[in-house]
Design a protein that fits this description.
The chain is of the alpha+beta class and about 110 residues long. The radius of gyration is 14 Å and the shape is globular. The chain has 2 helices and 5 strands. A hairpin with a 7-residue loop joins strand 2 and strand 3. Strands 1-2-3-5-4 form a 5-stranded antiparallel β-sheet, covered by helices on one side.
Length: about 110
């Protein structure tokens, strides 16, 4: 499989790791949209949110636990955004489930 995030999770492509355990990797986004912009990915290949099911949903819960832990450790637990794009029309460019953890600026809604 030629998946960018699988290669990052396997250590084949370097990243600036923020957190890692057996199931999750968090690393700094190379094109940040905020002063803090961390990507959280499952090490297991899941293409998108559309593929979350009973067999793999525990990893998603764990990712959110890790996001909260990172926010607390880095001092932005009082304000952050978590985003996941699902599919081409939603702007998903890497077909591996990932969550953008962003902080350090004010965010608007629905965009920004």
């Amino acid at each position: 499989m030629d998946c960018l995030f699988c290669k990052i999770a396997a250590g084949e492509i370097p990243s600036t790791k923020v957190y890692e355990d057996d199931t999750v990797l968090a690393f700094n986004d190379i094109n940040p949209e905020a002063p803090v912009h961390i990507l959280l990915i499952p090490k297991q290949h899941i293409a998108s949110m559309a593929e979350i099911n009973e067999e793999n949903s525990a990893v998603v819960a764990h990712i959110f636990e890790v996001a909260a832990k990172i926010a607390a450790e880095k001092g932005f637990a009082d304000g952050f955004r978590v985003v996941s794009n699902c599919g081409d029309s939603a702007g998903q460019t890497v077909k591996h489930l990932h969550f953008h953890l962003m902080a350090g600026r004010d965010f608007g809604w629905p965009a920004g």
